[in-house]
């Protein structure tokens, strides 16, 4: 094993860490992955039936019972609407009509046009007659205007997601109920674009969507199925508490959780291991790593060299590639693995040896990216000055992907 040229600044320290003799934790995976509950009983090839596992009549009935009163309140407060205002044609919406409305909304993600009005165009060049045959343009727009998800009269000022809370909680519970992830899972950040004013809007220059509502998302690494999510408000629960909240009922059966250096620490890995969950991921400086690895700089190691230290629960690895990469794992060997990679100046892939934990991390950390990528293919989120409508549309996109 290549141990690298560790800096003399740290030799003789780290009495609780060893260099050799690492034995990874090989706990058995005891869960049965795949569809559960009503999803396991569903025997058909009709896509809508799978979507209805999440967007149930019960959920849509809740939306109906929030939308209709909200519309009544609006007209009571605006009794002087212009004669030709489309709002004057309002009539209560039903669950059946709401299904039609959302069906057309989903369809706009597949049939793309510059504006909503163009879906009802009668110009033979760009007409899409299915929309006008299904619902009038005015009816579609007035339903969108009054779409509502929670009772403003009972506003909880301490809950920043109050406007969407019933829908968010209902859908996430369905996510957890309908599918059991496979052994490898990952946690990463998901961003819903929002550039308007919002107290919990965040900016992340490293994400494709740089401004928006951030959520912590737990996904199945293999297929990207969203099992759980939790929105970020800039304060409140600590990261470790958030991680355990996301894991929820997955703690115990022997899952392997992949996380990046925003979340990881040696202490968190040890806590998760006690909860029968293995961990692997990148590691930031001063997150509990041994001093010999904390003090490493790029010039201390040659390309391909590594430094390994472990205690009885976790292993920390520093490996020199184009940059110095630091990893923490509870379940991987300390050996190297051959992989084929693209390199500048070569027409074909070139063989390279990487630490086993890095190969596994690169393979299993992209579950949330799969979710975001698939959602981005057919975005049906319409322009809106209302963040809650856009966020619920984002949840519905997740439902379509999970289905």
UniProtKB/TrEMBL annotation:
Pfam families assigned: DDE_Tnp_1_7
Domain PiggyBac transposable element-derived protein intervals: 47-403
Region (Disordered): 1-34
Phylogenetic placement of the source organism: Eukaryota, Metazoa, Chordata, Craniata, Vertebrata
Protein name: PiggyBac transposable element-derived protein domain-containing protein
Species the sequence originates in: Nothobranchius furzeri
Coiled-coil stretches noted in the UniProt entry, renumbered to this chain: none
Bias (Polar residues) ranges: 1-10
Domain of life: Eukaryota
